């Protein structure tokens, strides 16, 4: 039987906000919120893929304490780390998530997996033509697709960013699917790279988490409609061109 899994990449050595993935967010490590939210996706394994660097020993300890399956691989070759993780846990359909997205939405991921499983796509994402806020990012592809990206790699940067370069280079012959929202909220930034990003996330959690621990995308939009000043907290931050974790 084909298995689908969410592989979350994480490391402690963020250049702009070191240790962010275990930063305290309303009483719990930020990474625990990410994993808990993803565990709400039905019939899907959630696995952490981290590095073999000594600084990431703490992530292995975290996973052991939280009963989260994990794999440790190369710190720079994230493509191989994903491929090895998928092989180790026998994952056929892979959803790629980064650990700096504590507002990740289980309903969005569930809908994306259902669309991908229709069989019409080699690669399915909500990141190429953005309508969702940055921080709800997801990419879905098969293990064979990942293997092909590895086999046909050309440049070093094609192992640092999983399938990004492969999709860009091969877009003409790939069946690429885009997941769109009914409105365009691509100007909103809900990922955590800088201290002010975390300030925004913390305020959103303080508002919504006590009443609804697994609050969803639409609830955040409702909050921002009531308190539009929240969007000003981190609107000046420039996103790195390609995410790397």
Describe this structure in words.
- The chain has 245 residues and is α/β, with parallel strands linked by helices.
- The protein has helices spanning 30-38, 57-66, 78-88, 106-116, 143-151, 157-160, 164-169, 195-208, 217-226, and strands at 4-9, 24-25, 28-29, 45-51, 70-73, 93-98, 123-125, 139-142, 176-178.
- The strands form 2 sheets. Strands 5-4-1-6-8-7-9 form a 7-stranded mixed β-sheet, with helices on both faces. It has a two-stranded antiparallel sheet with strand order 2-3.
- It starts with a strand and ends in a 19-residue tail after the last helix.
Layout of helices and strands:
Layout: E1 4-9, E2 24-25, E3 28-29, H1 30-38, E4 45-51, H2 57-66, E5 70-73, H3 78-88, E6 93-98, H4 106-116, E7 123-125, E8 139-142, H5 143-151, H6 157-160, H7 164-169, E9 176-178, H8 195-208, H9 217-226
Parallel strand pairs: 1-4, 1-6, 4-5, 7-9
Antiparallel strand pairs: 2-3, 6-8, 7-8
Helix pairs in contact: 3-5
Keywords for this structure?
single chain; about 240 residues; alpha/beta; Spore Coat Polysaccharide Biosynthesis Protein SpsA, Chain A; two-stranded antiparallel ribbon; globular; disordered C terminus
Query: Could you spell the SSE succession in H and E letters?
Result: EEEHEHEHEHEEHHHEHH
Distance between the termini: 30 Å
> How many β strands by DSSP?
9
Major beta sheet, strand line-up: 5-4-1-6-8-7-9
Examine the secondary-structure arrangement and name the CATH architecture: Alpha-Beta Complex
Mean pLDDT equals 90
Which spans of ≥5 residues are poorly predicted at pLDDT below 50?
Answer: 241-245
């Amino acid at each position: 039987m084909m298995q689908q899994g969410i592989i979350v990449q994480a490391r402690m050595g963020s250049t702009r906000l070191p240790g962010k993935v275990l930063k305290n967010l309303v009483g719990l490590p930020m990474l625990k919120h990410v994993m808990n939210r993803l565990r709400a996706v039905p019939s899907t394994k959630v696995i952490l893929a981290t590095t073999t660097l000594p600084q990431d020993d703490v992530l292995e300890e975290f996973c052991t304490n939280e009963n989260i399956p994990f794999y440790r691989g190369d710190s720079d070759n994230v493509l191989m780390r994903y491929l090895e993780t998928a092989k180790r846990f026998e994952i056929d359909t892979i959803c790629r998530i980064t650990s700096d997205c504590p507002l990740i939405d289980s309903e969005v991921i569930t809908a994306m997996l259902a669309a991908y499983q229709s069989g019409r796509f080699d690669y399915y994402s909500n990141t190429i033509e953005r309508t969702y806020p940055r921080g709800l990012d997801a990419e879905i592809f098969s293990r064979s697709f990942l293997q092909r990206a590895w086999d046909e790699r050309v440049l070093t940067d094609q192992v640092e960013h999983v399938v990004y370069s492969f999709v860009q280079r091969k877009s003409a012959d790939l069946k690429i699917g885009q997941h769109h929202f009914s409105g365009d909220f691509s100007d909103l930034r809900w990922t955590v790279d800088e201290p002010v990003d975390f300030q925004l996330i913390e305020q959103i959690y303080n508002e919504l988490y006590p009443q609804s621990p697994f609050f969803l995308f639409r609830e955040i939009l409702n909050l921002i409609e009531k308190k539009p000043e929240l969007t000003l907290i981190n609107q000046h931050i420039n996103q790195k061109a390609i995410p790397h974790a």
